[in-house]
Automatic annotation (TrEMBL):
Species per Swiss-Prot/TrEMBL record: Pseudomonas atacamensis
CDD domains referenced in this protein's UniProt entry, alphabetically: PBP2_TRAP_SBP_like_1
Family named by the database record: Belongs to the bacterial solute-binding protein 7 family.
Pfam families: DctP
Protein's name according to its UniProt entry: C4-dicarboxylate-binding periplasmic protein DctP
KW Signal (keyword) present: yes
Keyword Repressor: no
Keyword line: Signal, Transport
Signal peptide: 1-23
Length: 331
């Protein structure tokens, strides 16, 4: 009797050690994004994977899917909400269906430079926006920089009148549509994965992006001119599914929180240099002339585009806009 009990127990133990489902499976975090690995966001995703797998071995596994290889624009947010991916970092232009306040970041000529963007993002108002979509099951974990946007086209753009009648690709953002309408150009919403071909085939004549996106997607090969306009910002919100994040074991979640802070510091420190390097690589490729605006010419773009603010003030909130403007003054 004792012997058969003992052998039944030994047998059960052997079976359980063979059955992987009995051992705690690692949590899988699928991180999907639309850009190349060598961009600020691409690098951030890979660093996140590296640190998580070093510090939470066997507990969490991160799978990174770059270049729209799993989900492209328009589908990635839905995938996050359905639990098909656990982390994404859409550009701040891609949130208008979920919150109107984040449209703030698309207002042309709002921030003088990326340091002002940084100050606003770290302010109570900026941090508040990270939590503004929790009722929709979206938690903002951090802001990641890409950088300031430059205009590109197949003709030189020095003053707003040069853009008149041209078709510009825009992200899915009503503010960006209005920004191009303000200079009498024709905006056309298009997902990121389609931009190169759109420019190559002439479906659109121009676009706006930081140097890192232009270079990594080879857009410079199909754009003869880039105007260094720094007219707006392209940054990201690193987001997760609120229920997923809150359901993680507390020790795992707090380690992930620490890693997010570390990766964010790294991405935001390196982004500007990465963009500058890509600007130099575009110059070296000799495909594209980079136009530097005089202060007077840049002023003309500002004057033409700034009326867009008024159109969105009601949706975004005048106080939020003032807080962002205040970030232009270094403390
Ligand atoms: C774009 O669509 O131009 C960008 O949002 C792509 C990205 O994620 O940087």
């Amino acid at each position: 009797m004792l012997r058969s009990l003992f052998s039944a127990l030994a047998c059960a133990l052997a079976v359980s050690s063979m059955n992987p489902a009995m051992a705690a499976d690692p949590v899988i975090i699928k991180f999907s994004h639309v850009v190349a690995d060598q961009t600020p966001k691409g690098q951030g995703a890979l660093l996140f994977k590296k640190l998580v797998e070093e510090r939470l071995p066997g507990k969490v596994k991160v799978e990174v899917y770059p270049n729209s290889s799993l989900f492209g624009d328009g589908k990635e947010m839905e995938a996050l909400l359905l639990g098909d991916v656990q982390m994404i970092a859409p550009s701040l232009a891609k949130f208008e269906q979920y919150t109107k306040s984040v449209q703030l970041f698309d207002l042309p000529f709002l921030f003088n430079d990326i340091n002002a963007v940084d100050r606003f993002q770290l302010s109570p108002q900026g941090q508040g926006l990270l939590k503004s979509m929790e009722s929709k099951n979206i938690t903002g974990l951090a802001y990641w920089h890409n950088g300031m946007k430059q205009l590109s086209a197949n003709k030189p753009l020095r003053v707003p009148a040069d853009a008149r009648g041209l078709k510009f690709r825009v992200q899915a953002s009503a503010v960006l549509e209005e920004q191009f309408k303000a200079v009498r150009a024709n905006p056309r919403k298009m997902s990121f994965a389609e931009v190169y071909q759109g420019l190559q085939t002439g479906v659109v004549n121009g676009a706006e992006n930081p140097y890192s996106n232009i270079y990594s997607q080879k857009m410079h090969e199909v754009q003869k001119y880039i105007t260094e306009s720094n007219h707006g910002v392209l940054d990201y919100m690193l987001i997760t599914n609120t229920k997923f994040w809150n359901g993680l074991p507390p020790d795992v979640r707090s380690e992930l929180d620490k890693i997010v802070v570390e990766v964010t510091t790294h991405v935001n420190k390196e982004a500007q240099q990465l963009n500058e390097g890509d600007k130099q690589r575009i110059l070296a490729a000799k495909t594209t002339e980079i136009i530097t605006l005089t202060p007077e010419e840049r002023g003309q773009w500002r004057d033409a585009m700034k009326p867009v603010w008024k159109k969105f003030e009601g949706e975004i909130g005048a106080e939020l806009i003032s807080a962002a403007e205040a970030a232009n003054q270094a403390q």
